Every structure is written in C-alpha cells, then in structure tokens.
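User: I'll paste a sequence; please echo it back and then give the predicted structure.

Assistant: Echoing your sequence first, then the prediction.
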Amino acid sequence: MNNEINNRLKEYCDKIEARLAAFTADKDEFRGIVTEAMEYSLMAGGKRLRPVLMLEFCRMCGGDPDKFLDIACTIEMIHTCSLIHDDLPCMDNDDYRRGKPSCHKAFPENIALLAGDALEVLPFEVISDAALSGVIDAKTALMLISVLSKSIGVNGMIGGQVIDLQSEGKEISMDVLDTLQAYKTGALIEAACVMGVILSGRFDRIPEAAAYASALGRAFQIVDDILDVTSTFEELGKPIGSDTEQNKTTYVSVLGLDRSFTEAEALTAQALGILSGFEDNEFLSALTKQLLSRRS
C-alpha cells in the first residue's frame, strides 16, 4: 500500500489501540487479575481488521467514524474472546498466540476462561452505554446488538467452533467446510461491516456490505489455511501445521495450495467488485488486496 493508505491504517489502529487500553485500565485488588488477563490478550497486537472494517464502512457510507471508536472496539473484544477460548486445552490447546504464551499459559486457566467471558459481554455494555449517553439512538443500539449477538451464537462464531470440533479427524465436504468457516470466521467479519453501515444510517447498503464481507471472510480463511503450512512461527506468532496435527479439514487439504490461492484470488476480486459500488473506496480496496498477500 502507498504511504497515504498506510498512514490511514496506522491512524485507525492507533485510535483503536488507545480506546481498547482504556477499557482495561481499572484494576482493583480482588478482580484485577481478570482485567490483567483481558488486557494481556486484548493488547497483544493483531491487525485490528474488524474494527477497521467497521469504521471504514461507516465512513464510506457518510458517517463519522471518530464518534464510534468505542463501538468499533466491541468487535475486537469478541474476536479476542474467541482467540482466548480457542487456545484453551479443551479446544485447540495452543500454547502461543501472536508470538506470546496463550492467555491460559500466562494466567491460570480459570482466569483465562473468565477473561474471555468478560470480553464477550463487555461489548453489550459498551453499546448500551452509547445509547444511554446519546451517542447513538435506541433503534441503532438494538440493530447493533442484534447483528453482533447473532454473529457470536450458534448460527455464528460458536456454531462454527462446534462444527470444527465435531469435524476433527473426519473428512468433511466442501459445503460443510464453507459453512464451518462462514460461521467461525466470516460471521464476525460480516458483523463488523454491517455494523459500520448501521452506524452511518445507510441501511440500504447493508446487503452490499454483507456480500463484500462474505467474499472477504472466505478469502481471509483460505489465506489463513495457506499460511498454516507455508509460514513460520516468527511470522504467524503461533505454531505452524497445527491444523494437520489436529486432523482438521482445511481448504489446503481439500484443494491443495495452488487451487486454494486461485480461489482466494477470485474471492478477493469478487470483494473488490462489490467495493467499487461505494464512493471513496480506495483505502479499503488497497487493504483488501493486501490481505491476499499477507504473511501473518
């Protein structure tokens, strides 16, 4: 990406980081350990893709993203919750995340579990408080809560994780794999884009935002699967080849590397075609292309 695009991404990420840090600043004597665990995972780095998508869709549709930084942070809280829980011994049992010990390795396992739980409910407090303080109206709050809660539940992120767990050691069809990833990865990406449109008030653009997110989310997951066999621990910040070790069906195991990348290219082109219908889409178009060639 050129300097202007990189600068905008950095500006977004700096604002998001500052607001995320504020949510875990208060650590009292007895409950502080769980807040420290929340902060440990929340501030461990990452692309901040989902809040950036929310803010950028809001901006492209005529909204003021600076008004909604706290709400954008809600999607990152949910994403971080999913990472903490995914790494637990009862799930994927991963010892590292983003180059650091997983939350349950840095803190007691029960505290890590509770930190994930706390990050899962905090977003609804943030959205409700935004309505009570007049940042958004009640209808907007209800729409945001509806979209976000559905993306988390059995027809979203949790449902995808269940399919993932039930599929370990089994060969699954491409249709099942697509459903798994649409729920586990795609649902939260779609929520981010749709919530951005809702914040702008341009409800007529919701279908386009959802269609873009569907294509981007699948491309993103395919690249993730590719990186699981081609990247390094230093680049990814977590063990390589874990999908193979856990006998998971992935796009690479079904399609192979070359066909997987071709599919990711086609989905990226589809996402870019949808973006072309939005004004001032240069930043998000450049970011969409960059995600295809990422190494982490």
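The chain is about 70% helix and 0% strand. The CA atoms of residues 2 and 286 lie 9 Å apart.
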